[in-house]
Amino acid sequence: MCSTTRIVSVLCTVGPASLNRSTIQRLEQRGVDLFRINLSHTPLDKVAETVELLQSYSHIPVCLDTEGAQVRTGTMAEAVSVSESDYVRLTPESLLGTSTTIPLTPASVFESLQPNQLVSLDFDGVMLLVLKANRDGADTVVINGGRIGSNKAVVVAPAPALPAITEKDREAVAIGRRLGVKHFALSFTNSAEDVAELRELTGPDARIISKIESKRGVLNLDAILGAADEILIDRGDLSREVPLENIPLLQKAIIRKANQVKVPVNVATNLLESMIANRKPTRAELNDIVNTLLDGATGLVLAAETAIGQHPVGAVDMVLNMIERFRRSTEGYRIEDLLEGGSSLLPTLHGRKSVDSWPSRRRRTSPEIVSRLPGIEVDLETAIDIENLAGGVYSPLRGFMTREELESVLNENRLPRGDVWTLPILLQGKSQEFAAFQPGQMVRLIDPRGGRATAVLQIEDKFELDRESVASRWFGTTDRTHSGVRRFTERGLTVLGGPIEYLGASSSALSPYELTPAQVRTVFDAKSWTKVVAFHAYSQPTIEDEQIIAQACEQCRADGILIHPVAAVSPDDAPTTSSILIAYEQLQRRAVPNSLLAAFNSYPRHAGPRETVFNALCRKNFGCTHFVLKSDDIDNGYSKSADRILFESLGDIGITPVFTVTDDAAASQLSTEAFAPVATSPQPLEV
Asked: What pLDDT score does 634 carry?
């Protein structure tokens, strides 16, 4: 999703979990607005390296977040803990901390320490009482025990007066300016003067985000709002000085003030803390995000979730998902819409405003009336079309095409209301077979595989096809030896058009792995996939196909790939379908772990570029964001460039074509972070 269409920005903290090319580029694809480097956790000698790495991988702006006026623990030994009544020495010396001696920075904090002051180490952790103190250190007694980690925030009450910008910050800002960084966040902003001090270092063209994370910052909020370009509410550090139970109401008050003066306001800390380890967040976290957006926040900040978490891209996707659902809620929604699932980051059904607006399978015509309707036994291909119309595969179609729809598709590659659609979906028959049927009637459509009615057609139109005119526009030829033209002609030139009411599946068994769009989207959601490539196939995979899959995943930075070979049209073809699926199962295990294998209930139509776009639109309805095209495909004489030309002429259709090449030079460029490239000889893989 592009940030230009989003109503809330996303700031993403980078760290060990995300500082690699694959993750950064996947986050850029999702439209992250800012990459944040936390100087509290980045050594000065790594600042330039980190900025340059981000700039080499993406075009997303970088923000340097200052260390600021904060007391922190130094480097501690592992598993240090203290108990009540223990005596602990606090020291400004740079030594390894133990249970008896704890280093603190900056050293200037010791100038203001006084007996009977409370010192808290990390949130909800160790609390010490100062017994005596001077510039060389302080003797304390533990009044609340716990574990102590390295580089953890320390709160002294009352708070000591510390410089707004450390010497490290000054050097880091100079490095950032040299490298073209224009965004800077000021930690522990206590006054407008602090903002002015940073602006002197950054220059007037920089954008400064003032972080509100202290009592003094809150008390001076009005002045800070007048000096800063944005503010950021750091709920974590703020809760060290403010009672935790007051933070939700304080957040609302700060956001309200920022909204009144139209200053962007970002919110950080614990948005999706559980996703540091888990693939899914808690319900409370999602409620928190929604309430934060309802408060009026204009930006959300991910910190540990993307810096050290196990699912950095998944965490960003979840935030984007919630922002999109919030956006849709501002336009109004029905309670019924909230009962449906699926990620809002996947494409909506083609031609529908919401992914939730699935074709209705609710039966409206009573069984008694259906049983008295005249029936038409359709062919196998038409039976497949009925299933796909009912399941949303052919969205936005709700039935078989009328003359107006057919002409619009053949002439404009669009339906009359403007939605892109390239392939006729027709109920054809011989004139004598349809002689008794007229517009206004209802007829049963009988599946030949089970001998039972699977749908009721409400006839809106009946018309005769001009074979020459339709064939030339549909297939680019009228040659009867052309596979598509021959099939089109043999089915008959009388057409019945209108919406269908689905009655239920045929009694015939489904092909193995045959999943509906709703089921596939459910799997994508379970896997946290929001960038999915679709791979269309009619036969067993070749080594060339393996290379194409690897190249497409690398090119799109995809979360996963839907391997979607066409299923058998008739039971006689079932053994062939089975062998194809077995071959793809082996390919999955050997080379494509991030994949979903499903059988596509369809059939070849030999319509060249029109069919290619049609296949892409069907995969959009399955939830895919990209569709693989082989650059060397030639079908019944269509030119190599015809697919690309048609896609480009149609504009953005909601699914991106991926044009691949299959030469050795391209294969050699594939990243080792993607699937490994293989030889290009088009030999079938062993089954």
From this structure: 43
Number of CB atoms found within 10 A of residue 386's CB: 25
- Distance CA(222)–CA(224), nearest Å, equals 5
pLDDT in tens, 486-529: 999 999 999 999 999 999 887 655 566 889 999 999 999 889 89
Region of residue 363 (phi > 0: left; psi between -120 and 50: alpha; otherwise: beta): beta
pLDDT at 535 (0 to 100): 95
Specify the CATH number of the domain 3-67+167-330: 3.20.20.60
Encoding tokens for residue 451? 């001998």
Q: Are 682 and 632 in contact (CB under 8 A)?
A: no
The pTM (predicted TM-score) of the whole model is 0.78
CA dist 630 and 130 (Å) reads 72
* Type of residue found at 495: V
Closest by Cα among 655, 644, 666 to 555? 666
Domain at 517-668, CATH homologous superfamily: HUPs (3.40.50.620)
Assigned CATH topology for domain 367-502: Sulfate adenylyltransferase (3.10.400)
Q: Taking all residues of the chain, what is their mean pLDDT, rounded to a whole number? A: 88
427-448 burial code (b ≥16 CB/10 A, e <16): bbbeeeebeebeeeebbbbbbe
Q: How many CB atoms are located within 10 Å of the residue 335 CB?
A: 6
Residue 569 corresponds to which tokens in the numbers above? 């049209």
Torsion region of 126: left, alpha or beta (phi above 0 gives left; psi -120 to 50 gives alpha): beta
